[in-house]
């Protein structure tokens, strides 16, 4: 395996909730959806992070929205909860949650039906590679620092 290789993960999560939309000042009927979020992320090849860790972080964030009328929950009490608006709101939060665990979010595909998908991409892969290299350098520096401290403690 190359030294600059990455692990790329893709997993899907679901949000079951109701919403209504307002177009041209006219409120539509409240109706249910099972929104699907397909999340793609990168992890340094030398790291092993369980899918469950990423899934749990996103599931925990989505929990307050599950089985609710989205229009009654912030920020969708002031933002019309269209597929696009929902993902535009969720994506930066997903990004931060995944980053805390050690992954770098590449893109999210959100679907409200099998034939309707909205894609939210973050940055180019070169920027992600630079971030991964920065993480690797930080980890290496921490290891070296730890080894030096241990050898000084032994003296």
How would you characterize the overall build of this protein?
The model has no long low-confidence stretch (mean pLDDT 85). Helix 1 (51-62) packs across helix 2. Strand 2 (22-23) and strand 3 (26-27) form a beta hairpin. The longest helix has 30 residues, at 125-154. Helices cover 39% and strands 31% of the residues. The chain contains 3 helices and 6 strands, in the order E-E-E-E-H-H-E-E-H. The protein is α+β, with helices and mostly antiparallel strands. The radius of gyration is 20 Å and the shape is elongated. The protein has a 4-stranded antiparallel sheet with strand order 1-4-5-6. A two-stranded antiparallel ribbon has the order 2-3.
Radius of gyration: 20 Å
User: Helicity range of the residues?
Assistant: 25-40%
Structural class: alpha+beta
Quantity of strands, as a count = 6
Strand content is 25-35%
Amino-to-carboxy terminus distance: 38 Å
Major β-sheet strand ordering: 1-4-5-6
Low-confidence stretches: none
Q: In this structure, how is the largest beta sheet organized?
A: 4 strands, antiparallel
